[in-house]
């Protein structure tokens, strides 16, 4: 795929900033990188147990302090994952209230993510809050700085309500970020900040671009970027997502990956090199090729159902990968029907069939299975499935797939 680097257009970005693919860093990790690149952040100390609170209190100055749950999701403030504390007792109560418990925010959905690390920071006195972010705009294929004086709010909300308050600067990668571009953004502010604050903002913008490029980010976001009562510009929040395709040359960043944050099924898929993403629906799907996978999602939706996952086993899948992929779908408790849609080219239908049969031997199939097989060795593939004793419905084409899915989801 040639265009994956530009995997994020700005419109999708505004509505989906929290769900960008890529390797997400924790706030405390992003802040360490920011700090090294000259972006001011509050003093802070990370704890993973209540025993460490006294040590943390010696490392920060306060009062006030801010106690922040470290999970890969925004919207923590509204969900109780960010608390301001005025004394050490409140710090302890807030920290113990978060550690070991799940935090569900608008972005995590469902049961949330278990908090295993908490950041204790010096609180700042906020005078103004801005939004500052950077992504790659797919249309112009340029890194793009996004700035708004409606900081602190979710950018999706700002985009929906007051799109005029979102300003953008495209960056030519050859010239890099230029000072006049900071001017364009900063001189749009009303009221205009003092010269000292303007200088602080310009410096953060230039450094955000540096961080973005040096770390192969697909997204950097500071929300809010704060002006304190004493006129300092500080990144109070920090989000960074690293482009997966660049991880081969970002060895230090790979170390920062936190397996705690991952969906267990996605983690298993990663282990077997399967291209798997969990979705919200209940029709499990195993497909080969990203294009066919997307078409299959459409067919499932057109049939009035919703896919439980995206699983592209790819052209080079072997029997073990197929079998593990099928097993992952079987492990997903929400799945009410399974669809296998394979157009065999490099992936032969007999290999597919053997993989499916192997998985069915280890896990029982408790839901209807719909199979559409075409292409290389299709006869052999069908024969293997038939002789295995597996119960399944056969679809000859996508229209029949839609019909069968639609029948299966009725009353689900
Ligand atoms: P998010 O909700 O996950 O985006 O977490 P944030 O780090 O953005 O924190 C949520 C909100 O808490 C911010 O928008 C601020 O309004 C507030 N907040 C965070 N840190 C401080 C601080 O040091 N002082 C004050 N007064 N408010 C803070
Ligand atoms: Mn935030």
Give me a quick take on this structure.
By secondary structure, the protein is α+β, with helices and mostly antiparallel strands.
Report on the structure:
Substrate binds at residues 288, 345-347. One of its GO terms (biological process) is tricarboxylic acid cycle. Mg(2+) binds at residues 223, 237. Helix content is 35%, strand content 24%. It is of the alpha+beta class. The protein folds into 3 domains: 9-42 and 124-260, ATP-grasp fold, B domain (D-amino Acid Aminotransferase, Chain A, domain 1, 2-Layer Sandwich), CATH 3.30.470.20; 43-123, ATP-grasp fold, A domain (Dna Ligase, domain 1, 2-Layer Sandwich); 264-410, Rossmann fold (3-Layer(aba) Sandwich). Strands 1, 8, 9, 10, 11, 12 and 13 form a 7-stranded antiparallel β-sheet that branches. Strand 8 and strand 9 form a beta hairpin. The chain starts with 9 loop residues before the first helix and ends with a helix. Bound molecules: guanosine-5'-diphosphate (GDP) and manganese (II) ion.
Give short descriptive properties of this protein.
binds guanosine-5'-diphosphate, D-amino Acid Aminotransferase, Chain A, domain 1, 3 domains, 412 residues, 35% helix, binds manganese (II) ion, 4-stranded antiparallel β-sheet, Rossmann fold, single chain, 14 helices, Dna Ligase, domain 1, 7-stranded antiparallel β-sheet, alpha+beta, disordered N terminus, 24% strand
Topology:
Layout: H1 10-16, E1 23-24, H2 27-36, E2 44-47, H3 53-59, E3 65-69, E4 82-85, H4 88-98, E5 102-103, E6 113-114, E7 118-122, E8 126-137, E9 142-148, H5 155-161, E10 166-170, H6 179-186, H7 195-214, E11 217-228, E12 233-235, E13 239-242, H8 251-254, H9 264-271, E14 275-278, E15 283-287, H10 290-302, E16 309-312, H11 319-331, E17 337-344, H12 349-362, E18 369-375, H13 378-387, E19 393-394, H14 398-409
Parallel strand pairs: 15-17, 17-18, 18-19
Antiparallel strand pairs: 1-13, 2-7, 3-4, 3-7, 5-6, 8-9, 8-11, 9-10, 11-12, 11-13, 14-16
The protein binds guanosine-5'-diphosphate (GDP) and manganese (II) ion.
GO biological process, one term: succinyl-CoA metabolic process
Subunit structure: Heterotetramer of two alpha and two beta subunits.
Domain ATP-grasp: 31-255
């Amino acid at each position: 795929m040639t265009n994956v680097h530009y995997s994020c257009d700005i419109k999708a970005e505004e509505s989906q900033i929290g769900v960008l693919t890529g390797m997400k860093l924790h706030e405390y990790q992003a802040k360490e990188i920011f700090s090294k690149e000259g972006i001011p952040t509050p003093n802070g100390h990370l704890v993973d147990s209540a025993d460490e609170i006294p040590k943390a209190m010696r490392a920060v100055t306060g009062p006030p302090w801010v106690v922040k749950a470290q999970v890969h999701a925004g919207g923590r403030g509204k969900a109780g994952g960010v608390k301001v504390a005025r004394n050490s007792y409140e710090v302890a109560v807030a920290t113990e209230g978060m550690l070991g418990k799940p935090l569900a925010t608008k972005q995590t959905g469902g049961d949330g993510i278990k908090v295993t690390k908490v950041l204790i920071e010096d609180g700042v006195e906020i005078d103004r809050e801005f939004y500052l972010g950077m992504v790659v705009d797919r249309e112009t294929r340029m890194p793009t700085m996004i700035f708004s004086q409606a900081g602190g709010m979710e950018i999706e909300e700002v985009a929906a309500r007051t799109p005029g308050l979102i300003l953008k600067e495209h960056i030519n990668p050859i010239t890099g970020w230029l000072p006049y571009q900071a001017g364009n953004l900063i001189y749009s502010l009303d009221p205009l900040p003092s010269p000292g604050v303007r200088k602080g903002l310009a410096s953060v913008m230039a450094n955000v671009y540096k961080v973005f490029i040096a770390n192969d980010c697909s997204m950097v976001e500071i929300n809010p970027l704060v002006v304190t009562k004493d006129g300092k510009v500080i990144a109070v929040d920090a989000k960074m997502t690293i482009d997966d395709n660049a991880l081969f040359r970002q060895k230090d960043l790979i170390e920062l990956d936190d397996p705690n944050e991952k969906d267990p099924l996605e983690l298993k898929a990663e282990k077997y090199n399967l291209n798997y993403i969990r979705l919200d629906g209940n029709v499990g799907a195993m497909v080969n090729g990203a294009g066919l996978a997307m078409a299959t999602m459409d067919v499932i939706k057109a049939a009035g159902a919703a896919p439980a996952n995206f699983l592209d086993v790819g052209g080079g899948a072997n029997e073990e990968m197929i079998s593990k992929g099928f097993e992952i779908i079987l492990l997903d408790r929400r799945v009410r029907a399974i669809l296998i849609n394979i157009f065999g080219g490099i992936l032969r239908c007999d290999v597919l069939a053997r993989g499916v049969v192997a998985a069915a031997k280890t896990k029982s199939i408790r839901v209807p299975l719909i199979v559409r097989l075409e292409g290389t060795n299709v006869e052999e593939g069908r024969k293997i499935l038939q002789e295995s004793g597996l119960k399944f419905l056969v679809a000859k084409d996508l229209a029949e797939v839609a019909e069968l899915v639609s029948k299966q989801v009725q009353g689900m």
